[in-house]
Every structure is written in C-alpha cells, then in structure tokens.
C-alpha cells in the first residue's frame, strides 16, 4: 500500500510513451512511404496523424492540470508534440528522442549522419536540416554544445527552429511552456 499510486502513475507514463512512439512511428513511416502515395493520400494521412497528435496533446494537458507528479515526465512529451505539430522539427526520429530525453542517442544519430554525408549516403541539405534539429533538441535538453556546434546553429538557423528555441527559452516556468504548447496546438488546424 506504500506506493499510493506510483505503479498506476508508472503505467500511465508507459502508456503515454507508447502512444507517442506509435504516433511518431506513424509520421516516420508516412515520410518513408511518401513516394508510394499520391499527394492527396499523403496529405490526408498526415493530417489525420497530426489530429491524433492534437488529441494526445489535449489528453496530456488534462493530466498535467490534474496530476502534478507527472508534470516533469509529461512536459517533455508535450513540448515534443508541439514541435511536431508546429513543424519546428521535421524528423520524427528526432522528435521521439527529444520527447524521451535521450541526448546520448541524439548524439549517436548525429555521428551516423556525419558519416553518411561523408560517404555520400545523405545529401548535404538533409544533413544540415537534421543536424539543426538534433542540436536544437540537445540544447533544449540542457546538453552542452561544442563551440563548433554553436557556430553551426548560428549559421544555419531557420526561422521555425529559432522561434521554437526563443519561445521555449523565454518562458521559464513549466506552466507557461505548457500553456504555450496548448495554445499553439489549438491554432494549427
């Protein structure tokens, strides 16, 4: 009896993470299969997935307002959902690793991308976009970036990533960040 809801909270968190993983995988699969779909089918499927993300975000918001023990764990997920919906991050894999607060895996992905661009498996443009997303995610997770990474971010900053960075950095409290995430989701349909 000493747990007083800890196992339920743990199970809820696990279910929420699994739901987020499923939606992020759905977005990633959609991007990978884009060539096989006609434009209308692609847009409709993407719209449905984003609507599911919005519903998931609404559920998170309700949980966050009622259960303060989940704020820290679910706050990161909600920011990741907001980033996905706002198009700040275009790579579902980066969104998933950001939501799960996995800087080590983000750094591993970055090293793999650097190798891929050197051997010609990845275009320079895709590399730059994804590196920007990963570095921005690492910064948001409180990771220390090298001076070279900071320079890369400054030289290649996009308006969307800069806005995401600026808005989340200027807010301070978790409540304000969550309020922003919620308001951004409502206006993006």
From TrEMBL:
GO terms for molecular function: beta-catenin binding. The keyword Metal-binding does not apply. Residues 113-187 form the Beta-catenin-interacting ICAT domain. GO terms for biological process: central nervous system development. Residues 6-59 form a coiled coil. It comes from the Eukaryota. SUPFAM superfamilies: beta-catenin-interacting protein ICAT. Belongs to the CTNNBIP1 family. This is Leucine zipper and CTNNBIP1 domain containing. It comes from Fundulus heteroclitus. The lineage of its organism: Eukaryota, Metazoa, Chordata, Craniata, Vertebrata.
